[in-house]
Amino acid sequence: MSRPIHALIDLTALEHNLSVVRRHTPRSRVMVVIKADAYGHGLLRAAEAFKSADGFAMLELDAAIRLREAGYRQPILLIEGFFSISELALFERYQFGTVIHHSEQLEMLPVYRRAGGLDVFLKLNTGMNRLGFTPEQFPAALESLKSNPAVGQITLMTHFACADEPNGGREVARQLQCFNAATAGCNLSRSLANSAAILRYPETHADWVRPGIMLYGASPFSDTTASELDLCPAMTVSSRIIAVQNLRSGDGIGYGHIFHADRPMRVGIVAGGYADGYPRHASIGTPVLVNGRRTRILGRVSMDMLHVDLSGIESADVGSPVTLWGKGMPIDEVAQSASTISYELLCSLAPRIRIET
Ligand SMILES: Cc1ncc(COP(=O)(O)O)c(C=O)c1O
């Protein structure tokens, strides 16, 4: 038998979550964000579940090529664009769209030869202060694109900094107002909304939405659960107990003995650790399912193993199934206990983990 940890990717959950996006955004086209190997779910696996999407957004050129070569004909947008002139031949050959966020990219553009071949998402910095032209720089950037014969369709875009925050509404409104003011009079498509904006701010939906995390069944919000949003977890990471320890009162467990039993207790040792992508910073008490029952992790997560409290789960023994996150064990709760977010857990799934569908 192989090491029991594995991830189950539920394609119907991915399809369902895309339908939730559609329900919220009936008048927008949907560009599914499948960067970082589709947030750890597997690029081509996720693309198949999202085959009805209107477009794909990602930032790894090699992954974009794989997607095109797998036969997907929809627009594929590279959301950091190209990094050097040498990449432009690939944009031309595979008909990728590009985000343009910086004047250096505009300067490289003349190398692109196919007239009208390059669809561009022109990025405006409305307050995220990461990528994009300022409102002051924006008119010249737009003019430069309009006068370039290689450029096909132009879409105007921005990205929200605080749409997922409990009190993010004011900043979303401010960024939206900034975007609308800067782009007033431009008769071009627009794209603004990530998952949080799709779910909470319908006024941001515009022509193209760009959902990421909600497609994978996690909540972008700390104050609303995925199930309250009708999202289904697409990745379930499971393993089994491979040993049981009977601790006496006062015994410590694992590296550093950061947990000591205050009474005799049974502890299960689970095949799964930080080299599998389980967060080392998960605190004592992080929830986990054993035999379908909710319990907690104890002690320090090590490279290949972690420890779970079997108090009250008499049926649990070597071989018992353990759910680390996914169906029945919301990833958002695990992430919160480890001072991180679901995005990081999903993207950290280790290559050594067996994937099943
Ligand atoms: C430009 C852009 N749009 C959309 C998204 C999707 O965001 P989310 O996963 O929060 O829906 C991302 C993700 O980081 C992004 O960088």
Detailed description of the structure:
By secondary structure, this protein is an alpha/beta fold. It has 2 domains: 11-218, Alpha-Beta Barrel (TIM Barrel); 235-356, Lyase, Ornithine Decarboxylase, Chain A, domain 1 (Beta Barrel). Helix content is 25%, strand content 24%. The chain contains 11 helices and 18 strands. The chain has helices spanning 11-24, 35-39, 43-49, 61-69, 88-94, 103-108, 138-146, 169-183, 195-200, 331-337, 342-347, and strands at residues 6-9, 29-33, 55-58, 76-78, 97-100, 118-123, 151-157, 189-191, 208-209, 235-247, 252-253, 259-260, 265-271, 287-290, 293-298, 305-309, 321-325, 354-356. The strands form 3 sheets. An 8-stranded parallel β-sheet has the order 8-7-6-5-4-3-2-9. Helix 1 crosses helix 3 (43-49). It is elongated and about 75 Å long. Residues 33, 79, 159, 194-196, 210-213, 220 line the site of pyridoxal-5'-phosphate (PLP).
List the helices and strands and how they pair.
Elements: E1 6-9, H1 11-24, E2 29-33, H2 35-39, H3 43-49, E3 55-58, H4 61-69, E4 76-78, H5 88-94, E5 97-100, H6 103-108, E6 118-123, H7 138-146, E7 151-157, H8 169-183, E8 189-191, H9 195-200, E9 208-209, E10 235-247, E11 252-253, E12 259-260, E13 265-271, E14 287-290, E15 293-298, E16 305-309, E17 321-325, H10 331-337, H11 342-347, E18 354-356
Helix pairs in contact: 1-3
